[in-house]
Description:
Blueprint: H1 8-21, H2 24-32, E1 39-40, H3 41-48, H4 52-64, E2 68-73, E3 76-81, H5 87-96
Antiparallel strand pairs: 1-3, 2-3
Helix pairs in contact: 3-4
Amino acid sequence: MKIKELSSEQLNAAASMLKAISHPMRLAILNFLDEGKELTVTEIRELLKIEQSTTSHHLGILKDRGVLLSRRKGKNTFYTLKHQSLNNIIECISHCTV
């Protein structure tokens, strides 16, 4: 599908997702969740080396904008990419920043 084929609602949703992703910590989160990985808040916090509240803030934004899915299991919340094709954004960015 090409951009000109997208409805205004689809374009707005895409712009919202891209705005959510456009932060270094959030890009890192997407990178950690590549290839269908599912991580807890604690695991993501440890990888980012930031406070739990900051991690939760970034995860909340990504989830609210439709980038991530979450599921609870006991006391843990697991996060995964809502659309595995979002990995393509990370791959594209890595090629463009060389």
